[in-house]
Amino acid sequence: MTGLQDYVSGEERGPIGSRILLPASQTEFPRDMIQQYQDAMSVVSNYGKPDYFITLTCNSYWDEIQECLEDDQVATDLPDVVARVFQMKVN
User: Fold this and answer.
1) Do the Cβ atoms of 72 and 50 come closer than 8 Å?
2) Which of 7, 29, 51, 78 is the most exposed place for a label (fewest CB within 10 A)?
3) How much is the CA Rg of the chain, to the nearest whole Å?
4) Average pLDDT, the chain
5) 76/65 Cα distance (integer angstroms)
6) Neighbour tally for 37: CB within 10 Å
7) Rounded to two decimals, what is the model's pTM?
8) Domain layout of the chain by residue ranges
9) SS3 breakdown of the chain: % helix, strand, coil, rounded to 5?
10) 3 — pLDDT class (breaks 50, 70, 90)
11) Is the separation of the CB atoms in 31 and 39 below 8 Å?
């Protein structure tokens, strides 16, 4: 037996597995969120609070996006297409 089976059977009482430290570039994890927050606060401390906060949204049902999708795909499967169409519409 190895690993978890050894530990459960009582034959081995050392630590299980090994610790893995995900890089900050691994998105949607606490380490990444903390880094994003610190970056945003750094910008605010250097340039001051923003005067405006503008949000632009994209409609994933725009014809230009839907034409590029296969039958079993959704817009999130092709983020490059969504980004290109959005940039086209903004400009």
Assistant:
1) no
2) 51
3) 23
4) 85
5) 10
6) 10
7) 0.46
8) 24-54, 55-91
9) 45, 0, 55
10) low
11) no
d(CA 38, CA 40): 5
Nearest residue to 88 (alpha-carbon basis) of 52, 62, 54: 62
The encoded tokens of residue 48 equal 């001051």
1 pLDDT band, cuts 50/70/90, is very low
Residue with tokens 């409609």: 59
59's tokens:
């409609």
Three-class SS state of 72: coil
Q: Cα separations (Å) of 82 from 55, 69, 71, 79, 90?
A: 16, 11, 16, 5, 12
Q: Rounded distance, CA 41 to CA 24, Å?
A: 17
Tell which residue, 59, 39, 35, 55, has the closest CA to residue 47: 39
Whole-Å CA distances, 76 to 61, 69, 81: 11, 10, 9
